[in-house]
Design goal:
Blueprint: H1 3-21, H2 32-36, E1 50-51, E2 62-70, E3 78-86, E4 95-102, H3 126-132, E5 140-145, H4 161-176, E6 180-189, H5 191-202, E7 207-213, E8 224-225, E9 228-229, H6 235-244, H7 254-260, H8 262-265, H9 268-276, H10 285-288, H11 292-295, E10 303-308, H12 319-325, E11 330-335, H13 358-370, E12 382-385, E13 391-394, E14 402-414, H14 419-425, H15 458-467, E15 474-479, E16 486-499, E17 503-511, E18 516-526, E19 531-535, E20 539-543, E21 548-554, E22 569-582, E23 588-589, H16 596-605, E24 606-608, E25 614-616
Parallel strand pairs: 4-5, 4-6, 6-7, 7-10, 10-11, 11-12, 15-25
Antiparallel strand pairs: 1-2, 2-3, 3-5, 8-9, 12-13, 13-23, 14-22, 15-21, 16-19, 16-20, 16-22, 17-18, 17-21, 18-24
Keywords: Hydrolase, Signal
GO molecular function: hydrolase activity
Organism: Streptomyces carpinensis
């Protein structure tokens, strides 16, 4: 292990430990102590480059300069870029560019002040720089502040046309610099993974590859679930307004300081940003212009993505639509983790995703598409960890051997948020947990670790009430025991006709013979008139032989949505469940260990729910 890679491992382990314990507000929180001991703090300009020896916030082996250029929408918005070039470049030498664009590159800190003693380029992706030995391999790294953040002017525009114009301008600018070969790759996680997907959607010739870890595939589902507000409906706006108004460092240059204080003289920017999040109608132009999955239709930029199926923050919603619409080369790591990076480690040193080689594979991906270097290692197109913690290789995702539409029948429930269920069950179920709402700030990098757990005994008690003929807050439908292992993959969908107004929560459970059941997929929606269909989250869950698939339909009783129960009795008719099924017996194994978060998820979402009367078969005919 090279010294720099060893440093990256240690920093990544500490970062992940803090993130999982909630003690971290930004991935670079472990580094300010180093900066505070710095002896020099030269500040770069476009023509006065600065090295690590002159400012210890500059990564070793690189030279830092700062630049300003206009966005592409003729709005007058000026964008700021921190550029890191390999140290020792010869006159006239050109290198390909790795570009990251987002709100987290401010000199003061990513999501809040990080305690730096002097200014310098953000350390947000120091792990990537060190893990790949990026500068030794002949790449430039460019960090661009989206409008309204860091050293850029303009009103923030969360994933909207303004930010899309910024991404376009940044790609063009990076490709046209005299030190650039014209080949640009994008890199990011969370928000700056979203801008990578935007870059793909723009379909620019200069963009040769995108690496996007844990992105949003469509902006709407992050704020609303089919019309039902999520808990961050106000917190996300507050978070980004707070980041946008973060003060610059005292020794930032005058140009940067003036741009960083843009919102002080343009307070309407914060008001307008908050207003957009209040629009609940998915068909509104505000959200249509942010439907990244739909905008991906026909795009072909080589794409390397990661996604945790049980991710609690940037969830796998509209993921399948995006990948189906994308027609270019793809690479992916998909599995049972939370909001982490490919190289992150947990406190005991285990990889958070469970798979070795993130930095080597990422560098190989860029080498292939930015330098036309044939990979020395054959990597699987998709490496996927299913719910058993087992990894397999696939040529694409999803792969399904059979698609089935299963009859769930009729039922009824009271849309009361669980009140009737708890009243009927009385002392046989624990009190509903107090739903801890976000403290007012919820950005894509930081979110509550888990939703509140379901009250103990709730699911089992509801099933008993249903068996006794009572109508309460939800009802269940059970399958016959499965005769052979079967994987539920892709995006499950439930269709139904509902009489009444209110909300519906849909859940899938993996029920073991002993009655323990894991809730492995869920979604909520406002009820609509006529026939309605609701996509659940994308999943990759293996049901073992002898297990039962249970479906719950009812009021929103768990999680942390900000729903308003109607109190009405909802009659459900003709419910069906559409599933994509795969046979795990023909999996092709690929190296990887069980991701640590899988066991956390199983503890959080396992309930008591003995199987009830079976009304459908998961694999009709008993085959795939």
């Amino acid at each position: 292990m090279k010294r720099r890679r060893a440093a990256a491992w240690a920093a990544s382990a500490l970062v992940t430990t803090l993130a999982l314990t909630g003690a971290l507000t930004g991935p670079a929180a472990a580094t300010p102590g180093v900066a505070a001991q710095g002896e020099t703090a030269a500040v770069a300009t476009a023509t006065d480059p600065v090295t690590h020896q002159e400012n210890d916030r500059v990564p070793e082996g690189s030279v830092w300069t700062q630049h300003y250029f206009p966005s592409s929408d003729d709005s007058g918005t000026e964008l700021h870029a921190d550029v890191l070039l390999p140290q020792g470049m010869k006159a006239g030498q050109k290198v390909p560019v790795i570009l990251s664009i987002g709100p987290y590159f401010g000199h003061t800190g990513q999501t809040g002040p990080e305690g730096w003693s002097h200014t310098g380029p953000s350390s947000r992706f120091q792990d990537f720089i060190e893990g790949t030995d990026l500068f030794d391999h002949g790449y430039a790294f460019v960090m661009v502040d989206l409008r309204g953040f860091g050293g850029s002017t303009g009103c923030l525009d969360w994933g909207g046309p303004g930010e899309q114009a910024d991404v376009k301008a940044a790609i063009d600018w990076a490709a046209q610099q005299p030190w650039s070969t014209g080949a640009v790759g994008m890199y990011g996680k969370s928000y700056d993974a979203v801008t990578g997907l935007i870059g793909n959607d723009l379909d620019q010739n200069a963009l040769k590859a995108v690496v996007a870890q844990e992105p949003l595939w469509d902006m709407y589902p992050y704020i609303y679930s089919n019309g039902v507000p999520r808990p961050n409906v106000t917190g996300t706006a507050n978070a980004y307004n707070g980041i946008a108004t973060m003060a610059p460092m005292p020794d930032d240059d005058a140009h940067y300081q003036a741009n960083a204080r843009w919102e002080a003289t343009h307070p309407e920017c914060l008001t307008e940003n908050s207003a957009g999040y209040r629009i609940s109608d998915r068909s509104d132009p505000y959200w249509k212009s942010r439907d990244l999955a739909k905008m991906a239709k026909g795009t072909d930029t080589p794409l390397f993505v990661t996604q945790g199926f049980v991710e609690n923050n940037t969830k796998p919603e509209e993921m399948q639509e995006y990948l189906d619409n994308h027609v270019g080369p793809e690479r992916g790591w998909l599995g049972q983790w939370d909001h982490v990076r490919g190289g992150d480690r947990v406190g005991d040193g285990r990889l958070a995703m469970g798979r070795e080689g993130w930095y080597d594979e990422t560098l190989s991906f860029y080498d292939q598409y930015l330098k036309h270097i044939k990979p020395a290692v054959h990597y699987p197109t998709y490496a996927i960890e299913d719910s058993t913690g087992t990894w397999r290789a696939q040529r694409t995702w999803p792969v399904a051997e059979r698609s089935v539409t299963l009859p769930l029948g009729d039922g009824a429930y009271i849309d009361d948020g669980g009140a009737s269920a708890r009243q009927a069950l009385g002392t046989s179920v624990d009190p509903a947990p107090q739903q801890a709402q976000p403290s007012g700030r919820w950005d894509m990098e930081n979110a509550p670790a888990t939703d509140p757990p379901a009250p103990k005994g709730l699911a089992k008690g509801l099933a008993k009430l249903q068996k006794a003929g009572q109508v309460t807050s939800s009802f269940f439908v059970w399958s016959k025991p499965i005769t052979q292992n079967v994987r539920v993959t892709a995006t499950p969908q439930i269709s139904l006709t509902a009489k009444g107004e209110g909300n519906v929560m849909l859940k899938l459970y993996d029920v073991a013979p002993d009655g323990s059941a894991v809730m492995f997929d869920e979604q909520v929606s406002l009820l609509t008139s006529g026939r309605m269909s609701v996509d659940l989250k994308a999943t990759d869950w293996t049901l073992a032989a002898g297990h039962v698939l249970a479906v719950e339909i009812g009021s929103i009783q768990t999680g942390s949505w900000r729903d308003t129960p109607s109190g009405q009795t909802i009659d459900v008719k003709g419910a069906t469940l559409r599933l994509a099924l795969d046979d795990p017996s023909d999996d092709v194994a690929t190296p990887g260990a069980r991701s640590p978060f899988l066991d956390t998820y199983l503890r959080q979402y396992t309930v008591d729910l003995p199987a009830g009367p079976a009304t459908f078969t998961v694999t009709p005919g008993g085959h795939f």
